[in-house]
Design a protein that fits this description.
heterodimer; A: about 400 residues; mainly alpha; 2 domains; three-stranded antiparallel β-sheet; B: Beta Polymerase, domain 2
């Protein structure tokens, strides 16, 4: 029944047989090293890319539209599905934006737990990045080791909230649960081994000839290009700009912990690889400090704001007014004040920003997600020309794009 | 009578709002309360008309005229050192005042400050591209066009970015329903099989919560199993049957529902 010639792709009017010997290669959207649903139209002279058109939208689910039709708390699990490699950081960005909008202060223990989750997510994300990029380039061993370590961390998150990939572990106004008793000892055990693990990866890759050939002097993003294209996170720091939102515009307890921001001015793939490795060490450093903070915090987990946040379970079960408030908040949703807010947080990929425009209703009037991967995909337009086809794979690898986030 | 739904805004609305409810405002501070912002605003005001300016949640918001957008952003980039355009998009206020609000979210790394430059354009008006100043606007402006249908002048590659090129309608408009419109429901059928197959296939079910219990082709039968494509007369009652392998399962006794008793009396 299917009419074959109706299934015509776009770009159908491109002449594939051109006089100037230019070949057009369609890379993706189903390509193992396209990290999801990336389609690249590459114009080639021999093996060299002369023009690149990234084509996105294959995973577009209209999350911003969904947000306009959901109450604020309902949207939280949807944010998981953006950067699904580090879903707590998405939850956190959204929760923080709403908290800023309604002017909430989160209890200290919740802040500590959030910091733990954020840094664990950063480790998970960076390990995943290392594994998949190494696999793209052909280093299978690193993939297996990195996934093993990532597994421990996912087990930890599972111990905390029961989910491994889409955590929804953060609520507007705090966190839903306290960490289990085994959490900190387990995390400590993992962190004690982590430096050796990172060293193992580096021993495998750092001076590996193939790795160096694929990484060094490849995918050079000059500082000017990185700034102009809105690159953030490791992509920007590898291009010589020391900008980390955790340090420059600290949120939660990042101003109380001591950590460094690794920066490189080499601008190439190798610089980005080294930054990811260094950042893992910094995350471990932060986690050690945060674990020590946990002990002297009171047990409160959610902010006290009866107008916006449900009371603790005990109050709901014993006090009539709390029950009523809870009922209204669950059925109708909270109504933040009229106004707008843009809040940026440092997700493992870069600057994750939420712009929320509230008109005083229980549904956001407009919610825009500034996902770092969107621009890290865009920069490929200017970055790829001049490179060869194998470099394309290495470059896509080090940009660390996740398509849940690009297409939203 | 069908329930009245306003055509200019089909987004979900709260089913109940207290009649005395007055929404509070996110506090706005005067620009003069922050030294850096005050100087930046002075520099912008010297060259361009500023309609309104205030500080909200630690960031300055500046309202300008839409024709000044390139000028203001160039001034901010070259003179005031706002080196990054983090985000650019629009907010649909067509049903309230027939306008889109366009915002440019700027970041200065040297000053550690963020400014949101906003301007309002009427429906059908176009705005000048800022892609020459910030390459990141290339994709953002395409996304803005894709989602709202706002035309951008002098853009190097002006094309939809997330939706297919031949899509009709702009999804983030308040007039666009959440589950898509008529066009969306038939898009894939028309494209893959042709319009003549519409009767055979039917429209795409875009409500992900919809389950048709008499449709045995697309859904497993609720209640009990039926063969694929079996015809079931409407209104047929559900029969509860327990699934079990014919030969039984090791160590598990076959559960006979009819011969077992359900204990309802707790004190029996």
């Amino acid at each position: 029944m299917q009419v074959k010639n109706r299934l015509r792709p776009f770009f159908e009017n491109i002449n594939f047989d051109r006089k100037d010997n230019e070949l057009i290669l369609n890379f993706g959207p189903q390509h193992p090293s396209a990290h999801g649903q990336l389609r690249l139209m590459l114009h080639l002279q021999q093996e060299q890319v002369v023009k690149a058109h990234p084509d996105i939208g294959y995973l577009h689910r209209g999350m911003e539209k969904m947000a306009e039709n959901m109450i604020y708390n309902e949207f939280m699990p949807t944010t998981d599905r953006m950067d699904y490699i580090a879903s707590s950081s998405n939850n956190y960005g959204f929760a923080l934006a709403v908290e800023k909008l309604i002017g909430l202060e989160v209890p200290r223990r919740a802040k500590v737990i959030r910091m733990m989750l954020l840094e664990i997510n950063r480790l998970i994300s960076h390990l995943f990045w290392l594994a998949t990029t190494a696999l793209d380039i052909g280093a299978m061993t690193v993939f297996l080791y990195a996934f093993r370590e990532r597994e421990y961390l996912m087990d930890l998150v599972e111990d905390y909230c029961g989910a491994r990939l889409t955590h929804s572990a953060i609520r507007i106004g705090g966190v839903p649960l306290d960490i289990p008793d085994t959490f900190i000892p387990d995390l400590k055990k993992f962190l004690d081994k982590l430096p050796q693990n990172i060293k193992d990866y580096e021993d495998l890759l750092d001076t590996n000839r193939i790795w160096q050939m694929r990484m060094e002097e490849v995918g050079v993003i000059p500082t000017e290009m990185a700034l102009s294209w809105g690159c953030t996170g490791p992509m920007l720091r590898a291009s010589g700009v020391a900008w980390d939102i955790r340090k420059e515009e600290p949120y939660e307890l990042y101003d109380e912990v001591d950590f460094d921001i690794p920066v490189s001015d080499k601008c190439d793939n190798y610089a980005r690889y080294k930054l990811y490795m260094m950042e893992m060490r910094e995350s471990a450093k932060i986690l050690y400090q945060v674990m020590d903070m946990y002990a002297d915090t009171s047990t409160e987990l959610m902010a006290h704001a009866p107008q916006y946040i449900s009371a603790p379970k005990l109050d709901i079960m014993t006090q009539n007014y709390s029950l009523m408030q809870h009922f209204v908040l669950v059925t109708q949703g909270m109504r933040p004040p009229v106004g707008e807010v843009y809040v940026a947080t440092e997700s493992p990929k870069g600057e994750l920003g939420y712009y929320i425009n509230s008109q005083g209703g229980p549904y956001p009037y407009r919610l825009k997600v500034r996902a770092p991967s969107f621009w890290h995909t865009g920069v490929l337009t200017d970055l790829l020309p001049g490179h060869y086809i194998p470099d394309v794979v290495a470059i896509i690898g080090t940009t660390n794009i996740v398509f849940g986030e690009v297409d939203r | 009578m069908r329930r009245y739904v306003p055509k200019d805004d089909v987004q979900k609305k709260s089913y109940y709002t207290d009649r005395y409810w007055v929404a509070p405002q996110v506090p706005k501070e005067k620009v003069s309360s922050d030294k850096v912002f005050a100087e930046d605003l002075k520099a912008i005001k010297a060259k361009f008309k500023v309609l309104d300016a205030y500080i909200q949640v630690e960031q300055m918001v500046v309202y300008i005229q839409p024709e000044d957008n390139v000028g203001v952003l160039a001034l901010m980039k070259n003179v005031l050192d706002y080196t990054q355009l983090s985000e650019l998009s629009a907010v649909d206020f067509l049903s309230q005042r027939g306008e889109f609000d366009i915002f440019y979210q700027m970041l200065s790394m040297s000053k550690r400050k963020r400014i949101r430059v906003k301007c309002a354009i009427k429906e059908g008006e176009a705005i000048e591209s800022v892609e020459k100043l910030f390459r990141s606007a290339d994709w953002s402006e395409r996304e803005m066009y894709d989602m709202f249908g706002i035309k951008v002048n002098n853009h190097p590659f002006f094309k939809r970015i997330l939706m297919p090129d031949d899509w009709e309608g702009h999804p983030l408009l308040k007039t666009y329903p959440l589950h898509g419109d008529e066009f969306a429901a038939w898009y894939e059928v028309d494209k893959i099989f042709g319009k003549e197959a519409r009767d055979i296939i039917g429209p795409e079910i875009r409500d992900d919560a919809a389950v048709d219990r008499y449709d045995t082709k697309r859904f497993a039968r609720l209640g009990h199993e039926v063969p694929y494509g079996a015809e079931i007369p409407e209104g047929e009652p559900a029969v509860a049957t327990e699934y079990q392998e014919d030969d039984g399962v090791f160590l598990i006794e076959r559960f006979e529902k009819n011969s077992s008793t359900v204990i309802t009396d707790r004190d029996r």
